[in-house]
């Protein structure tokens, strides 16, 4: 999997650009409202969603599997600690965080990996801490395309496997981890206006005190 992400990273960089996602902006506003000061971003990539938190006084730690992405983050003067490794190997430290934000990553994991990832994120939250995931929805146009690997799980293109969420699977996978709410969000391609937007779901959880 590492080799796949390294080889496709430059294409993804071009696809996403450097502006923060709408999900990151909404999460920043929520974290500021809740006085969240210190967050973990698994799958931080080259940091396009990190800067909006840093610029608002929120401390950020990242996890990223791609060394290329980490190097690019440094080149763009993002001064924050980033653990080099897969989210499937969490935790990388014993620290507990006020918040966790994970964008467009969890749906790339298989069932066992998703289950473990959610549990690991929850365990790294402080009591009353929040975790927010943005993940692909069954309303996305690529749902049902490619080779079916399981229920709502498809290899949409060679090497890219996605699990598509709906309200039922959100409740099933996040229900034991402080699920507060989920909501649909449409994410535009901010650097490619001719591309259709992504249809995502934002999942918000809070750890019990």
Would you kindly provide a written description of the structure presented here, covering whatever features stand out?
Strand 4, helix 5 and strand 5 (125-136) form a beta-alpha-beta unit. The protein has 209 residues and is α/β, with parallel strands linked by helices. The chain has a seven-stranded mixed sheet, with helices on both faces. The protein starts with a helix and ends with a strand. The chain contains six helices and ten strands; from the N terminus they run ααβαβαββαββββαββ. It has helices at 2-16, 22-33, 51-54, 67-75, 111-123, 167-174; strands spanning 38-42, 59-64, 82-84, 97-103, 125-136, 147-150, 153-157, 160-163, 179-187, 198-206.
Nutshell version of this structure?
The protein has helices at 2-16, 22-33, 51-54, 67-75, 111-123, 167-174; strands at residues 38-42, 59-64, 82-84, 97-103, 125-136, 147-150, 153-157, 160-163, 179-187, 198-206.
Could you list some keywords that capture this structure?
209 residues; alpha/beta; 7-stranded mixed sheet; 6 helices; 10 strands; 31% strand
